Amino acid sequence: MSTIVFHSQSPSVYLWTASLVAAEKGVPWSLNVIEAGTEAHRRLHPFAKSPVLQHGAILLYETSAIAHYIDRTFDGPALQPDDVLGQAECLRWVSLVNAYMFSTMTNGLAKQRLLVPMQGGQSDEAVIATAAQQFRDQLVVITRELRRHDFLAGDEVTLADCFLFPHLHLASMTPEGAAGLKEARLAAQWLSRMRARPSFAATDQFAQKAA
């Protein structure tokens, strides 16, 4: 029986992040598929974004808030560092993913290379070229952090890793992403470590859909 319900479209990269957090905590969840942009959707989220978490009478939207809630509400390994600086670094990574890496890795590379052709459209090569350069720059930032420890905010998985993973995984499925990762050994190794975790096996139903 599910402990929490995610109201969302499927696929959704942020549903994937939320489900990764739940899987890392060992929290059972279920999905209620909603149609994007409908009045029912806006009653759950005023700007019609996904996912929305339901836990009993509690409804919570925005993935960073949902991830924090799951981590602090349920037993299981902590996904945020105990110290203030560690927490700040974890939050910094969540912000970096949401503000920059989502638009580059998912919208700029994965959607243009994978989703648009699948839907019969023509990929925008100018968008891809810009995203490819941004991706290489972002890999430099990721690699710099991974020289210090195995995961983004320390030696254990945190929310930071759960936020980055879906975007980098999808980007790696594009020619530009794969080429960039060949030059970013530590980022490629991190991706392999994340794919080896049980949480990936529990949520990879989104892997082919979330772009």
Give me some keywords for this one.
alpha+beta, 4-stranded mixed β-sheet, 4 strands
Topology:
Elements: E1 4-8, H1 13-25, E2 29-33, H2 39-44, E3 52-55, E4 58-61, H3 63-73, H4 84-118, H5 125-146, H6 159-171, H7 175-182, H8 185-195, H9 198-203
Parallel strand pairs: 1-2
Antiparallel strand pairs: 1-3, 3-4
Helix pairs in contact: 1-3, 1-6, 4-5, 4-6, 5-7, 5-8
Strand content: 5-15%
Distance between the termini: 29 Å
- What is the succession of H and E elements? EHEHEEHHHHHHH
Shape: globular
Structural class: alpha+beta
Rg on CA atoms, Å: 17 Å
Q: Order of strands in the sheet with the most strands?
A: 2-1-3-4
**What is the overall number of helices?**
9
Describe this protein's structure.
This protein has 211 residues and is of the alpha+beta class. Helix content is 59%, strand content 9%. It is built from nine helices and four strands. It has helices spanning 13-25, 39-44, 63-73, 84-118, 125-146, 159-171, 175-182, 185-195, 198-203, and strands spanning 4-8, 29-33, 52-55, 58-61. Residues 207-211 have low confidence and may be disordered.
Could you give a quick summary of the protein structure above?
With 211 residues, the protein is an alpha+beta fold. The chain is 59% helix and 9% strand.
